Description:
The structure is a homodimer of 180-residue chains. Chain A has helices spanning 6-18, 61-69, 82-89, 98-101, 129-132, and strands at residues 24-30, 33-39, 42-46, 51-55, 71-75, 117-125, 134-144, 153-156, 161-170. In chain A, 21% of the residues lie in helices and 35% in strands. The relative contact order of chain A is 0.19. In chain A, the strands form 2 sheets. In chain A, strands 2-1-5-6-7-4-3 form a 7-stranded antiparallel beta sheet. A two-stranded antiparallel sheet of chain A has the order 8-9. Chains A and B meet through α1, β3, β4, α3 and β8 of A and α1, β3, β4, α3 and β8 of B. β9 (161-170) of chain A pairs antiparallel with β9 of chain B.
Amino acid sequence: xxxxxxxxxxxxxxxxxxxxxxxxxxxxxxxxxxxxxxxxxxxxxxxxxxxxxxxxxxxxxxxxxxxxxxxxxxxxxxxxxxxxxxxxxxxxxxxxxxxxxxxxxxxxxxxxxxxxxxxxxxxxxxxxxxxxxxxxxxxxxxxxxxxxxxxxxxxxxxxxxxxxxxxxxxxxxxxxxxxx
Amino acid sequence: xxxxxxxxxxxxxxxxxxxxxxxxxxxxxxxxxxxxxxxxxxxxxxxxxxxxxxxxxxxxxxxxxxxxxxxxxxxxxxxxxxxxxxxxxxxxxxxxxxxxxxxxxxxxxxxxxxxxxxxxxxxxxxxxxxxxxxxxxxxxxxxxxxxxxxxxxxxxxxxxxxxxxxxxxxxxxxxxxxxx
Lengths: 180, 180
């Protein structure tokens, strides 16, 4: 494997895990409170700096916390965490402490028994927050467990139904080198 | 199934097919030229109006065409179209006519032998186009073949590798009704 610097590492990991469009868990902390929410409305936006866009509705308790703290952590749950994902998505941090309820580790903002894949983010651009609840974050640090290389992830379709990704197809040999 | 109006139909279809984060083919037309590109950097942004955000780099020939025409069509390819997707992603409309090269139908902006799933879009917001190449479109019409209900889609991870989605998991019974 080619030697990569920190910036390359971030870009590669963000693409690998977020570009496929999985449901993610977004955790936040503000004034000694923590919260976590499910999110399917996100996109990669730029390689360098490593930017991602997240649509976090004002209907989510996390919206205000993230707007104030200007930080969040994006965590990638695998299919092993399906019921936890559904639980987190169907409760509100305004009513319960979700970290306690779902047995999550606050320190790492990661999930027990899950591969540790998470991205620490700092707010980069808030121009569309007021009108569209669209936050642009810079990924400043990535935590990625070495295996599995392609964890089974959940992709939300609405209506309580998830699609599952995990199987891979490589077409690397058909790519122009500059497109990889 | 509950009776739905046109707006509900759009929202349901956009969520079902775009929220899971597949690679899409974005076609455009400007001054009698057509073009088509692959895109993995997109997100749903709003239910009503039905808004989606697309990051279309200036490095893509389509960027200028879409910026001028203020329209595009988002097409969803299935795994049957894998090689076509790779071909479209590794060529430029500045050099070839991709519709001709890949045997695509201009009229429908859809792919031969593929389920017709496409979304006609009109530019809704260009505030972040200059700085981030981020276009917010309103989906004004959806074309969705009735089957398969959950087509096998491609999700790009970088490095020439795609993940495949198709298998589904339903947790509908665990959702609060207002969350569906």
